[in-house]
Design brief:
This protein has 450 residues and is an alpha+beta fold. 50% of the residues lie in helices and 16% in strands. The protein has helices at 7-55, 65-71, 73-77, 158-193, 195-209, 224-266, 272-291, 302-316, 337-354, 386-389, 406-416, and strands at residues 82-87, 90-94, 125-130, 136-143, 150-156, 300-301, 323-327, 332-333, 358-366, 369-376, 420-425, 431-438. The strands form three sheets. The chain has a five-stranded antiparallel β-sheet with strand order 2-1-5-4-3. A five-stranded mixed β-sheet has the order 7-9-10-12-11, with helices on one face. Strand 1 and strand 2 (90-94) form a beta hairpin. Helix 8 packs parallel to helix 9. The longest helix has 49 residues, at 7-55. The radius of gyration is 43 Å and the shape is elongated.
Length: 450
């Protein structure tokens, strides 16, 4: 059984599984105990009747029929019982077949089969039998000393089954009530037990969103070390982010002047446009590094950005016969235009370089986020390598001219704006990359159908 991914789901599933196993086992065990007690009560009554039958057998093995008639033994045994006496001197009885055909007898010559636990000598050996008229009976049989024969008495099995059925209904109702009580207790326990974990989750979300600076370390014993490590991680991330921003700013500064000089030297050369694009990119990242944050009030139309990038990629791969299909609604995302171009461009470029013949782009709106999906019909990425594929500089396929930064850039930009990148397997093979991006505040209601 595959357990759910959540702790709440796992604990609930284990509790349900345990209850589903324990209650039937308890029902069978209690039913067995009830059967044992009812059967012992019936056997006690049968033992008394068996001793009456034994009293009419003389020591030489003959049946004292006069005593049998005078004592009214048949009436004393009961109208619901069947009985039989088999001796060398004769046979008498009602309902039972020859006793040598009754299963469960002791070995020939044995004077008496061992009685059940708690019963003394003369009690007899229990047996169950189906009579020719299909009546099931339960009885006791006793082998007499020497070669004196056997005596047996039995009653219909329903005398045991009916009390059991009468007791099982209340038992099942009781077990059902116990199951409901256990279910309620489990839900209450899970809710109360996992409340600190939910509070910690909300606090971490507040830290990530900037509403809180750290996580309270006044937690239950099991969560206190986690809270401490989270606070350490927050501090380390803040220091690493500051270092990264400083490094980005320094790099941008270092490249800014040489690029500007190169642009001047090229003058009207057609390559100057590419240099200008490099210069604009450097300026953009320098400004973002200086600001230390992103503009979440930005609004960029997704459809034009995608169509423009698709046209460029399709032109670059025209000699391969690559087709790029799009299905993107008119929706605006809260992402800077340059960042959106970089993010979508890397996704399309990565898909185009690995696709065999086609790339498909689609977008939809789910849960207040724009979901952009790019799939290709290439070899795809194995599930074990998908997380590593988004690490900077990692190239799982050494062919081609990639540098291994495309998916890492997409991941970082998406995370910067509160989205995420996930990799999966496309239908029929290939890679499907899904990016979620926040909708802009200017997004209208015309996208509700998506």
């Amino acid at each position: 059984m595959r357990l759910p991914r959540s702790i709440h789901g796992r604990m609930l599933a284990l509790s349900v599984a345990t209850t589903l196993v324990a209650l039937p086992v308890a029902g069978f065990a209690i039913g067995g105990v009830l059967d044992h007690f009812v059967t012992r009560n019936i056997d006690a009554r049968l033992g008394d009747r068996l001793r009456l039958l034994r009293a009419v057998v003389r020591e030489d093995g003959t049946i004292d029929r006069a005593l049998l008639d005078r004592s009214g033994l048949a009436t004393a045994i009961g109208a619901d019982a069947v009985w039989r006496i088999d001796t060398p001197g004769g046979t008498v009885g009602v309902g039972l077949p020859a006793l040598d055909a009754v299963p469960g007898r002791g070995p020939p010559g044995r004077p008496e089969r061992g009685p059940p636990p708690g019963r003394g000598p003369g009690f007899g050996a229990p047996f169950d039998l189906i009579l020719p008229d299909a009546t099931r009976v339960h009885g006791l049989m006793l082998e007499l000393p020497g070669d004196g024969g056997r005596v047996a008495v039995a009653v219909p099995r329903r005398q045991i089954d009916q009390p059991l059925r009468g007791a099982m209904l209340p038992l099942l109702l009781t077990l059902a009530i116990v199951a409901v009580v256990l279910a309620v207790a489990t839900l209450v326990q899970l809710r109360l037990g996992l409340r600190p974990l939910r509070a910690l989750r909300d606090r971490v979300a507040a830290v990530r969103g900037g509403a809180a600076a750290d996580v309270p370390e006044d937690q239950p014993d099991e969560l206190r070390p986690l809270a401490t490590e989270l606070n350490a991680l927050v501090r380390d991330n803040a220091a690493a982010l500051a270092t990264a921003r400083a490094s980005a700013a320094n790099l941008a500064h270092a490249l800014k002047t040489p690029v500007a000089t190169l642009a001047i030297e090229l003058g009207d050369d057609p390559r100057a446009s590419q240099v200008a694009r490099i210069d604009a990119t450097i300026r953009h990242h320098l400004a973002r590094a200086r600001g230390g944050t992103v503009d979440r009030r930005a609004a960029t139309a997704l459809q034009p950005a995608v169509e423009g990038l698709v046209a460029v990629v399709a032109a670059l791969h025209r000699d391969r016969g690559l087709t790029v299909g799009t299905d993107v609604p008119e929706v605006s995302v809260a992402v800077d235009a340059a960042d959106l171009d970089e993010l979508v461009g890397n996704l399309i470029d990565n898909a185009a370089r690995h696709a065999r013949s086609s790339v498909q782009l689609s977008a939809a709106v789910e849960g207040g986020m724009a979901v952009l999906t790019v799939s290709d019909d290439g070899p795809g990425i194995a599930a074990a390598d998908r997380v590593r594929a988004t690490d900077p500089g990692v190239r799982l396929d050494e062919r081609g001219d990639g540098h291994g930064f495309g998916l890492a850039i997409v991941r970082d930009l998406a995370a910067l704006y509160g989205g995420r990148l996930t990799l999966g397997e496309a239908d029929g093979g290939g890679l499907v990359a899904t990016v979620t991006l926040p909708l802009s505040r200017e997004a209208g209601t015309g996208i509700a159908g998506y």
